[in-house]
Specification:
With 262 residues, the chain is α/β, with parallel strands linked by helices. Helix content is 28%, strand content 27%. The longest helix is centred in the C-terminal third of the chain and has 14 residues.
Length: 262
């Protein structure tokens, strides 16, 4: 999206067009044989890779361990034209792994006041289709990951307003990179891309452009990832969950240093 702005600097004022990161709601509906579509989640996201976002979210929430039967935009007649691409219906081949109406670890963030002990227990119980059992990247490789991720952030280059996540090999090669206004959405899209391509969502390292909050550690654990590498700091609950889940957790990562917390 473009917007006309007034920029004020030491050399005066200038008026010009600026590009903004698009932010719109996405409603995810879930259906399976014998159960009609019902809303299970609404998030604010950057449009694009919506089906991957939905598939990844289902994996991270412990609802599925296999690719959905179909994912499609909703065609309800009562939807306004501008909302037709903001509702996604996921149809499973059978019932989900648990009741999608039950509140659990992935339903909250640091702003929601989740209970630490109960939340960690639920997150650790979330099934992963496959755990990463291969080698983890060395510290030298970990320090290179943020720069590798940054070179793939095309939307950030245009807008400066989105986060990014990428899945890396032990050698530091990025298998998939996704961007979104929500850091958690970017991670959902990465996992969804792997699942929809027929690959395991588990990987050597998940690298994210921001901090390592509890919700990102929970998603990494649910996907079976070996390590989570963050540019920013982790939270106390994120470190606790990573330690209990056996996830290698790095924060304050740059080409000059990284700090391992778990």
């Amino acid at each position: 999206m473009r917007s006309t702005v007034h920029e004020f600097g030491t050399d005066g004022e200038r008026r010009h067009d600026d590009r903004l990161a698009t932010e719109e709601p996405l409603e995810i509906r879930l259906a399976w044989p014998g159960a009609g579509p019902r809303r299970v989640w609404v998030t604010m996201r950057t449009p694009g890779h919506d089906f991957e976002l939905a598939a990844g979210w289902l994996v991270h929430e412990g609802l599925v361990t296999a690719p959905p039967r179909t994912i499609a935009y909703c065609t309800d007649e009562d939807l306004a034209p501008e909302q037709q691409f903001n509702v996604v219906t996921v149809t499973l081949a059978g019932p989900p792994s648990r009741d999608p109406g039950h509140r659990h670890a992935g339903s909250g963030s640091s702003a929601c006041g989740v209970c630490g002990k109960d939340t960690i227990a639920e997150a650790l119980a979330a099934p992963a289709a496959e755990r990463w059992t291969g080698p983890l990247p060395s510290a030298d490789v970990v320090r290179r990951l943020p720069d590798a991720l940054r070179t793939a952030q095309a939307v950030f280059d245009r807008t400066g307003g989105v986060h990014a996540a990428g899945l890396a090999t032990p050698e530091g090669d990025l298998l998939v990179v996704r961007e979104d206004v929500g850091r958690h959405n970017a991670v959902d899209k990465v996992t969804g891309a792997r699942v929809m391509a027929g690959h395991s969502p588990a990987g050597a390292a998940l690298v994210v452009s921001g901090r390592a909050g509890f919700e990102l550690v929970q998603k990494a654990v649910a996907a079976g990832t070996g390590a989570l590498v963050a540019v920013g700091a982790p939270t106390s609950l994120a470190v606790t969950l990573a330690q209990q889940a056996g996830l290698a957790l790095y924060g304050f990562t740059s080409r000059d240093r990284t700090v391992r917390y778990a």
